[in-house]
């Protein structure tokens, strides 16, 4: 039986080649587009895997993946992971305090912040991008307006005319 040939593209001349090189180190406006809770390979820990997307500029559309340790044999790994989560929350305009829930982290999807992107060297593997710092976007709005996350309350600058949402217990409105 002969298989029918499928047309994949009508004109390859119009399609740019794909480049999987790392994003050059710099600061980029970005947002989380996928937040997933995962179990470590040895089954003893948990981490939050986040897919971030650069939302503007020459690197727009490029993805950066970041893991945040939340349960690990190493207390230092957990301290670093949760500290990075706290920095991301603050960069999105919220003041974290008290208990941090996974649902509150997933509510950050679509919230624009500025990520300071660097390159991590890995022996035996290709270099990869990492977010070295999370910074406020200072009112930056992505070209395609991200959806407002449910359950988070904005800072006064972000709230403007919107109605306040219910705030998870770990978040407090930032002082003016």
From TrEMBL:
InterPro entries cross-referenced by the UniProt entry: DUF669
Compositionally biased tracts (Polar residues): 145-164
Q: Which domain of life is it from?
A: Bacteria
Region: Disordered; residue ranges are: 141-176
Q: What is this protein called?
A: DUF669 domain-containing protein
């Amino acid at each position: 039986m002969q298989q029918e040939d499928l047309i994949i593209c009508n004109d390859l001349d119009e399609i740019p080649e794909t480049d999987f090189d790392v994003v050059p180190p710099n600061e980029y406006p970005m947002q989380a587009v996928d937040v997933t809770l995962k179990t470590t390979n040895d089954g003893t820990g948990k981490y939050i895997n986040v897919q971030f997307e650069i939302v503007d500029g020459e690197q727009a559309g490029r993805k950066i993946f970041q893991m945040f340790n939340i349960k690990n044999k190493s207390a230092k790994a957990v301290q670093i992971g949760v500290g990075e989560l706290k920095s991301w929350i603050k960069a999105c305009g919220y003041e974290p305090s008290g208990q941090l829930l996974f649902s509150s982290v997933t509510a950050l999807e679509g919230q624009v912040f500025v990520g300071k992107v660097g390159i991590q060297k890995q022996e035996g593997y290709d270099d990869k991008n990492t977010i070295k710092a999370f910074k406020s976007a200072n009112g930056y709005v992505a070209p395609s307006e991200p959806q407002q996350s449910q359950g988070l309350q904005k800072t006064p600058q972000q709230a403007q005319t919107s109605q306040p949402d219910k705030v998870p217990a770990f978040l407090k409105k930032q002082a003016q």
